[in-house]
Design goal:
The chain has a domain at 4-90. The chain is built from seven helices and no strands. It has helices at residues 4-18, 26-37, 42-58, 68-71, 75-90, 96-104, 121-141.
Length: 142
């Protein structure tokens, strides 16, 4: 079979990532061959399984989604899972340090910056003048 090395690599990766010790019999080899014809790679498999596992940890997915018959045996289903995982991987991730700093100061890290009205240079200068006056007064009181 021309895809035997790729099929073996895919099956080994699937078993490693899921923790399922499954034999690679004729039926499973045929299912893998269908996916290799679609151009599925080990990286694709890793992406899909990681996405499903994250969903299981979050309580949004059922662990049965990782079963061979549910994920690999239906090429159309796998293709949909792969498209969803790729789309999610393309979404920009937020900066965790920024989000933590915003939460620490009582601000919502999910709100847009555009909700804040920009200040004019005159407003900024007035604030600086006020702060400078307060600081001078504080120093005099010491």
């Amino acid at each position: 079979m021309p895809h035997s090395t790729t099929i073996k690599d895919l099956h080994a990766a699937y078993c490693r990532l899921t923790g399922f010790a499954l034999t690679l019999g004729f039926d499973r080899e045929y299912k893998w061959s269908q996916l290799t014809r679609l151009g599925v790679t080990v990286a694709d498999l890793e992406l899909v399984i990681a996405r499903i596992q994250a969903g299981v940890r979050a309580g949004a997915r059922y662990s049965g989604a990782l079963k061979f018959r549910n994920l690999i045996a239906d090429p159309d289903h796998f293709e949909e899972e792969l498209a969803e995982a790729r789309a999610f991987a393309r979404k920009p991730k937020g900066d965790p340090a920024r989000a933590a700093a915003l939460r620490a100061t009582g601000r919502d890290p999910h709100t847009s910056h555009s909700s804040h009205k920009p200040q004019t240079p005159a407003q900024i200068m007035a604030e600086h003048e006020t702060m400078a006056k307060l600081l001078r007064d504080f120093k005099k009181d010491l």
